[in-house]
Amino acid sequence: MGDLRRFIPRDEQIAKAKAEEFRQYVMAFDGLSDSLREAVLVDVARHENGGKLMEWRFVMLSPAQCLAVWDAIRALPSEDRPQQVRHLFDLVITHIEVNTGLVTLTREELAKLIGTEPKHISTMMGTLEDLGVISRERVKVAGMRGAGVARYRVNAHVAWNGKLEIRAEKAKQEPLPFGVVQGGKA
């Protein structure tokens, strides 16, 4: 039996193709600051749905996992801004792209919501990465010099937004953050 697929109207297919083409132009355009490039890409992603209202989206998160992450954050030394890291964690898990786990807010948007500088967001995201809550990946962009653009992905063992089958596959590919999710028990 063949795979079932959702029918996508032609105008929606064209809108998605145009968005992808524009995204490639933005990525290849020299002279844009990283923050401007990131802001444009986020706006393109937001408008890809043709202006339709988004359906209700739910993030799956075990209460035990959530408490374990909060406890790990609370145990951070005071110079690591535990309250801001906790706020960042809450924002990250409530802004996850469906079926990928990618964080949809930019560093600048996160900084504005928390009330801090973007450079501090990078440090705090590093803290969440050290805890195993998120992973950082560099996306090499055609025509762009340097290491590429940093994208953050929430560990599928910690939180998920999307189909359970896809989550199960993603979780197989990611390490279980034992120190956080299971309270230090292997």
Give structural attributes.
186 residues; 2 domains; 8 helices; mainly alpha; single chain; two-stranded antiparallel sheet; Arc Repressor Mutant, subunit A
List the helices and strands and how they pair.
Layout: H1 10-28, H2 34-47, H3 63-74, H4 82-93, H5 107-114, H6 118-131, E1 134-139, E2 149-154, H7 164-173, H8 178-181
Helix pairs in contact: 1-2, 4-6, 5-6
Number of strands: 2
**Shape annotation:** globular
Count, helices: 8
Q: Give me the Rg, rounded.
A: 18 Å
Number of domains in the coordinates?
A: 2
Secondary-structure-derived class:
mainly alpha
Q: Could you give the order of strands across the largest sheet?
A: 1-2
Low-confidence stretches: none
CATH topology of the largest domain: Arc Repressor Mutant, subunit A
In helices, the fraction of residues equals 40-55%
CATH class of the largest domain reads Mainly Alpha
Question: On the 0-100 scale, what is the average pLDDT?
Answer: 79
Examine the secondary-structure arrangement and name the CATH architecture of the largest domain: Orthogonal Bundle
How much of the sequence is in beta strands?
A: 5-15%
Q: State the fourth-level CATH superfamily of the largest domain.
A: Winged helix-like DNA-binding domain superfamily/Winged helix DNA-binding domain
The CA-CA distance between the termini, in Å, is 41 Å
What string gives the helices and strands in order?
A: HHHHHHEEHH
Instruction: Give the biggest beta sheet.
Output: 2 strands, antiparallel
Q: How would you describe this structure to a colleague?
A:
This protein is mainly alpha-helical. The protein has 2 domains: 8-50; 57-181, Winged helix-like DNA-binding domain superfamily/Winged helix DNA-binding domain (Arc Repressor Mutant, subunit A, Orthogonal Bundle). It is built from 8 helices and 2 strands, in the order ααααααββαα. It has a two-stranded antiparallel ribbon. Helix 1 (10-28) packs antiparallel against helix 2 (34-47), helix 4 (82-93) crosses helix 6 and helix 5 packs across helix 6 (118-131). The longest helix has 19 residues, at 10-28. The chain is globular, with a radius of gyration of 18 Å. The mean pLDDT is 79.
